[in-house]
């Protein structure tokens, strides 16, 4: 793109587009790139402040130094010194990058909000991705400031898989008092506009499930939880249409809870993968169209299972992973698998019986089945 009036007679057609279209384009970029667009021309200087979607992403500040390879135990002292120097240089560079990212995160929202008259315009989406999981104070501050902008979609990712396993996991709450970590005034914000909530790498307290109700989140439709520890035993929402839980573990056993109950009658899509607690549904889900359930076992936990499957009879597409033939056939009456709406059934890593009893049972009791997929299934 050439600036208007630049040499070569080029035409800046992109800058001639209306603000609403340019804001839509910029919303697809990371906020660091969006801010950098202000250098293109005077026309773009303040354009970024009207973008309705903000994305604070630490991955936009990559560490450009490789991890040094540790020398062998009998390596010369010169090699050892080079390793120490390289490691120190990398550590110093990492600290510098974190400070740059912290400054960026601290200034982005205030500068963006200053472009509109108080109160600041609400956001369509606020996305926050922090890989330095130990920096909880900054993370809480940025979450609180994002909630103050009443986003319709909130995506917050904390750390990667290694950080989640070996570092303290921060807690998440929609109540702003949870994030009182500095001297800034508290924001008494109710998520009345929140339609989509995606969280990864958090500990979810017992009151989190209470925040999902109509009093706090009256229009919430999409909830996705990944790599989260949860302390509640029930998810209830009259507005929720999509629920996904991947790699989540429960701490409910401390209070005697033995299962996670779902009260989501309007659910259309359900995905339960590696949820370390049995999941049951309190009611049928008549609007359910797509469901995916993984039965996971370890030394102390059992997730999935036939209890939740009983409530999936309305599904048109069903994917099951790691179930055995007893769960799919022997332990329930034959009426269990009479799914009148089911068109596609996918069985992945399932045990289908020594004489393929599960397949025969499915073919006899699912009258409208059009597609059956077997992926890495086993017979005893």
Automatic annotation (TrEMBL):
This is F-box domain-containing protein. InterPro entries: F-box-like_dom_sf (IPR036047), F-box_AtFBL13-like (IPR053781), F-box_dom (IPR001810), F-box_SCFL_complex_component (IPR053197), LRR_dom_sf (IPR032675). It comes from the Eukaryota. Transmembrane segments: none annotated. The gene is LOC104583301. Signal peptide: none annotated. Residues 14-52 form the F-box domain.
